[in-house]
Amino acid sequence: MSVSSAPGKVYLFGEHAVVYGEPAVPAAIERRARVSVESRADDHVRVTAEDLSLDGFTVEYSGGTDEHPDVDVSPSLVDAAMGYVDAAVRQARLAADAPDAGFDITVESEIPLGAGLGSSAAVVVAGIDAATRALGEPLDRRELADRAYRAEFEVQDGQASRADTFCSTIGGAVRVEGDDCEPIDAPSLPFVIGFDGGAGDTAELVAGVRALREEHGFAADTVASIGDIVRTGEDLLADAVPSGEPSRELLAELGELMNFNHGLLAALGVSARSLDAMVWAARDAGAHGAKLTGAGGGGCIVALDPGEETPTALSFTRDCADAFRAELATEGVRVEAS
Ligand code: PMV
Fold first, then answer.
1. 254-263, pLDDT tens digit by residue?
2. Are residues 29 and 50 in the same domain?
C-alpha cells in the first residue's frame, strides 16, 4: 500500500487576482490530507472517505463516476469529493500509462472542505502521488504539481490557478504568477485560522469577479491593486530573515497589507458577514492583520498573531465555529508509507 499526505494552505495575498495573471503568495499549513492507495487486480476504483464529511462514505465504481452511489451523505458533497478523487485517478493512470489500473483508495483529511484551505488540492496531490507510487511510477514534484493542477482545472471547469496545487506539492510559501511557480523564503509566520463552519462555491465566486471586472474599469483596477499588494508583500518577505522568528515590524507591515487585501476582496464581493465578523474580531484582539483566505463566500479567515488573544477572541465570536493556530508546513507532499 502507498500512503502520501499533502498540506492545505492559506493565501497570504493574491487570491482571485491570480486568476487574471497577477501574482499570489499562498503558504502551506500543517493540516494534511492523507491518501492510501492499494492497486487492484481489476479496473474498479473503491473510495473510502473518512473525514471528508462528518459521516464519511464508501463508493465503488468502474468506468466513469456517472453511477451515483447509494450513500447517506449529501449528493453535492459526494459529487464534489468524488470529482477530485476521480480526476486524480485519471491523472495517475495517464502518468503511469496504465489506463485500466484499479485502486482501493482511502482519504482522510484534517482540512475542512471548500473553506479556502486548499482541501481539494491536498487530496488531489496526495492521491496522484500515492496512486503513481502504487503503480511503481513515482513522479517528480514539478510533474506532480502539474498533473494535480490539470485535475483541478478539469473539475473546476477551468476556474483554477496553479497556486493551491503547487503550494500543496512543494510546501512552504510559494509565488505563483500564471504558469510561473516558485518557492520563496518565508519566516515562520504565526497564522491563526478562523472557520465559520461553511464553504464558498469557488467557481461561482470566480465567475462573479470575472463579470464585475469585465463590466467596470474600477473592478479591473481593484484586481490590479491586489497585484500591487502582493508585490509589496513579496519584497517584505524577501528582505526578512528566511527562517526563525519574524520581527514585530515585519508582522505589522504584512498585517497592514493583509487588511488592505481583505478590503479589496470585499469590494469585489467575495467576503461574507461571517468572514468580516471574524476579521474584525481578530483585529480587535490585536492581530497584526486579518483577511479571508481562498475563494471567500464563507469558510476561513487567516490572521497574524503570535499571542493567544486572537484564537481566544475568535473562539468567542458567534460566527466562528472553530479557531486554531496553523504552523507553516515546510514540507509539501510526503510519503507516509510505501
Ligand atoms: O478557495 P480555494 O482554496 O479553492 O481558493 C480559490 C482561489 C482562487 O484564486 C479564487 C481561484 C484559484 O484557483 O486561484
1. 999 999 999 9
2. yes
